[in-house]
Design a protein that fits this description.
By secondary structure, the protein is α/β, with parallel strands linked by helices. The chain is built from 11 helices and 12 strands. It is found in: Cell envelope. Keywords: Signal, Sugar transport, Transport.
Length: 335
């Protein structure tokens, strides 16, 4: 199937959209577009044909990290005259079914996460075979190109983990506990593997927990800290786990330092208060925004971003030296 879009006024539309994007970046809401009730800005809309894009992730709404991704996607959709259909399921077969449903409804583009790429491969291949452009983001760094996905937006989780390990070494850590909240999720496992590779100052132990049962997470981390008081650093792989680890540390009377991947507004406050030492930021709002905006660019101007390589949105460290600047954007709901 060949998908056609009217090219009338495309150059003008792209210019208008760029102006809108720049204006949104200077808004009074801490860098976020002014809300119009749909997560997007109200400064204007691109004069390009109305298109439908499905965004299908492996996490359900309500998770603060994924709420940021959705906000970014909604901002791009509002600017680009896109109907955004967001859906999610943590179970890979169900997520694959959502991709197939998007194909069956004849969407114009699909943005998808590939947390469990083997399970997602048949659905992604079906989308590309149907002539629907597909971009991946957040998860699937090592698999997106093999599956025929057009573009990827996210971070190399192994490199990010190695950066964390190197920083732990520099800070004098000796015994690190890396907490994986979902077994089999390749991005999370790559993070802890990277931490182990980059941390040369001591040893790294993996602790598996189930993020769907946070009271159990708190109890498991508490028990581990009580069992092994030599643990001096806790590496969480998400803000909710980090905040729970802070409570577990108090329960166990542990002196361990808590650090984490990923942020949310509460995590920003925890860095400001010193409860969490630092975090790795992969900019989830930007991932959602770029995933939608890249499909709009492709549909209306044949553009691709990255030249066949992934577009990296992280890692970057957030700590006491820059947290106040980040906090402004977190208050606006975009970091």
């Amino acid at each position: 199937m060949t998908r056609h879009f009217t090219r009338r006024g495309t150059a003008v539309a792209l210019g208008v959209a760029l102006s809108v994007s720049l204006a949104a970046g200077c808004s009074s809401s801490g860098g976020a577009p002014e809300s119009s009730g749909d997560g997007g800005g109200n400064a204007g809309t691109a004069d390009t044909p109305r298109a439908t894009i499905a965004m299908i992730t492996h996490e359900v709404p309500g998770d603060t990290f994924w709420d940021l991704i959705r906000k970014g996607a909604e901002a791009a959709a509002a600017k680009d005259n896109i109907e955004l259909r967001y859906s999610a399921d943590p179970e890979a077969p169900n997520q694959a079914n959502l991709v197939q449903s998007a194909i069956d409804s004849d969407v114009d583009g699909i943005a998808v996460t590939l947390a469990k790429p083997d399970a997602m491969a048949p659905a992604v291949e079906a989308a590309t075979a149907a002539g629907i452009p597909v971009v991946a983001f957040n998860s699937g760094y090592d698999a997106w190109k093999d599956q025929g996905v057009q573009q990827y937006f996210g971070q190399d989780e192994t490199i990010a983990g190695q950066a964390v390990g190197a920083r732990l070494t520099t800070e004098g850590a000796k015994k690190t506990l890396c907490i994986i909240q979902e077994q089999g999720q390749v991005a999370l496992e790559s993070r802890c593997a990277g931490v182990s590779q980059g941390f040369t100052g001591g040893s790294t132990e993996i602790l598996n927990v189930n993020s769907k049962d946070m009271p159990s997470v708190e109890a498991t981390i508490t028990a581990k800290l009580q069992q092994d008081p030599t643990i001096d650093h806790i590496v969480a792989l998400g803000a909710p786990i980090a905040l729970t680890a802070v409570q577990s540390k108090a329960n166990a009377n542990s002196e361990a330092t808590v650090v984490t991947f990923d942020t949310n507004a509460a995590l920003v406050e925890a860095i400001q208060s010193g409860d969490v030492a630092w975090a790795v930021d992969q900019q989830p709002y930007l991932q959602g925004y770029l995933a939608v905006d890249s499909l709009w660019l492709y549909l209306n101007n044949g553009n691709t971003i990255g030249g066949g390589t992934p577009v990296l949105t992280g890692p970057a460290f957030i700590d006491s030296t820059n947290i106040d600047a980040i906090a402004e954007y977190a208050e606006g709901g975009t970091r």
